[in-house]
Amino acid sequence: MSDPIIKPTHEARKGDVVTPAKGKGWFYTDMVKEHFFSPKNFLEDEASYKQAYLGMVGSPACGDAMKVWLKIETIDGVERIKDFKWKTFGCASAIASTSMLSVMITEEGGMPVEDALKLRPQDIMERLGGLPARKVHCSVLGDKALRSAINDYFRKSGQHDRVEVEHGRLVDKVLKITDHDIEEAVLEGADTLEKLQEKIKVGTGDPSCIPDVEQLLRFYKEKHFGA
Fold first, then answer.
1. Any idea where the BFD-like [2Fe-2S]-binding domain is (predicted)?
2. Of 87-91, 158-162, 177-181, 187-191, which one has max mean pLDDT?
3. Domain extents for the chain?
């Protein structure tokens, strides 16, 4: 399949990303393009960050993977994230989402750890000016990788009681997708396995979980829509 190309014509809004297949396009905001073409805080040399706190999510085998490195300092009794570096194997939306997240975390002297734990994909998308619906799952990767890195900090600093477990039961162990993630996707209109995988990629990294995913899909459809 050919890569998407930028095609600013009178038939498309300025900045539309249009695939070679006629009529198959979606819109990227100027902010998304800024962070894609000029990503912030991307890590070139992993060896220089061996002492940082590491978070990982996903797998290159399923198309999306992300690593996050944090440096955290306690200043006036407040734990602040002073540095955020990252690498991702993914699409333009994944790159832009993680780049924006790194800016949000490190601006204004570094975000307190407690505030960083409250960040959600919607916060990242708002700063980006939105993402195409089919790319929303890309912002979810950044938020999960961040929490994974903060958990690494808690473990290494002996604060085991602060380690946060992903909300709900883990279903896809590669992409760290829970039953709660699946329920939210169903509520947002993902009423088939194909739509679920398009939205959150569940089962693409861990195919063995698909029977469980299909069972949860039926359960949540009946629960919320009587279907």
1. 176-217
2. 158-162
3. 28-164, 166-227
Four-way CATH pick for 28-164: 3.90.1010.10, 3.30.420.40, 3.30.300.130, 3.40.30.10: 3.90.1010.10
Judge whether 209 counts as a catalytic residue: no
> Could you tell me which residues are beta bridge partners of residue 81?
72, 111
Catalytic position from the list 52, 54, 138, 186: 138
91 is an active site residue: no
Position 20 confidence tier, pLDDT thresholds 50, 70, 90: very low
Catalytic-labelled residue, pool 12, 31, 43, 62: 62
What is the reported pTM?
A: 0.67
Fold of 166-227: Arc Repressor Mutant, subunit A (1.10.10)
From the CB of residue 22, how many other CB atoms can be counted at a distance below 10 Å?
8
Q: Are the folds of 28-164 and 166-227 the same? A: no
